[in-house]
Amino acid sequence: MTGVRLVQKISSAPAFARVAPHVVPALDRAVHRLTRGRVLLSARLLPGVVLTSTGARSGQPRRTPLACLPEDGGRSWILIGSNFGRPGHPAWTANLLAHPDAGISWKGTDIAVTARLLEGEERAAVWKAALAFWPPYATYQARVEREIRLFRLTRRGPAAGPAGTPRSPASPPPTSG
User: Max alpha carbon distance in the chain (Å)?
Assistant: First the structure.
């Protein structure tokens, strides 16, 4: 438990917020691709998915490794748009707002999902669960003026990419959007 607390403390530091967005996703994408979707480095500490969304402006597929809060035994997932406590919403949140049909790689399995932005009391309840799950989210929220976006992803059918085309977890990831 001490190791987790140390990582939580480090991840709450402003210096981590400056460096992590450039290092963590790149490492996650590379390891995920090399292991054909079986390993996500950041998931060694927190549960994680690789989200494949459609770029809000480009219309191109975008792959983003993200920590998630699994619900109901892996039937739905909560994604937290903390952006490591940096200003501005992460691009993947705009992608989901524009194109809610997406795909995730969860424990090496591709799953077609639909994303829904949480609001009001539902958001408040999930935010409370997110803080219990990973306390540094409170530090991230305190650093920014925006309200951190929370999304619930639910299964929508057979495994497919965001446009309904089958894809392999080992396919090369496009650049983050």
Answer: 43
